[in-house]
Design a protein that fits this description.
Length: 167
């Protein structure tokens, strides 16, 4: 299960702050979403993802599907997800069934601006936002309040033990 979905095979996915694509690569390999977009503010990271994501040879399962990476700022997410489609001859703003954000939001100056952009990027009322980050315990309440200003929380979990186990 990912975000309550039994399968991602017919689902679209956006990861904001995708870095060098490690987390996305695992998800694409294991869950094969229909389409995937990685967004990052670093041109170097986007270049790295574009150069290496599809070409890794040692993976047991090949990487397949529609995978794209775009340069963009989480603080202006709608802008980052908007592009001109030549086939449709109009501007399109991408949305997705699943929007993810993993260990990136501690870099963002304005969480409300980010969460507003995420709300716009969620495709419909069944779409989910999967969000995790590390924070000082003193900041945690503010983050929780900001999350609740923008989203209905379905599940909340402390992942610290899992993170330690994975190191
Ligand atoms: C620790 S990495 C997380 C990488 C990825 N989520 C993963 O788990 O493999 C944090 C990423 O957030 C990106 N980032 C920081 N500020 C950002 C912003 N305002 N907009 C988009 N990405 C940002 C950084 O460039 C970096 O790649």
């Amino acid at each position: 299960m990912v975000g309550g979905f039994k399968s991602l095979r017919n689902k679209s996915l956006i990861e904001v702050g995708c870095g060098r694509g490690g987390c996305l690569k695992y998800i694409v390999r294991e869950y094969a979403p229909k389409s995937t977009i990685g967004v990052d503010i670093s041109q170097e990271n986007i270049n790295f993802c574009n150069e290496t994501f599809m070409t890794t040879t040692h993976q047991a399962k090949p990487i397949q599907g529609d995978v794209r990476f775009v340069l963009g700022d989480s603080q202006k997410l709608t802008e980052a997800l908007t592009h001109f489609s030549e086939t449709e001859d109009r501007r399109i703003t991408e949305t997705a069934d699943v929007v993810m954000n993993v260990e990136s939001s501690h870099c963002y100056p304005d969480l409300d601006a980010f969460f507003s952009g995420v709300s716009e990027a969620l495709k419909d009322e069944n779409s989910v936002f999967l969000y995790t980050d590390f924070r000082y315990i003193t900041e945690y309440g503010k983050v929780q309040q900001a999350v609740r200003r923008h989203f209905e929380v379905i599940k909340e979990e402390d992942l610290t033990r899992n993170v330690f186990r994975s190191l």
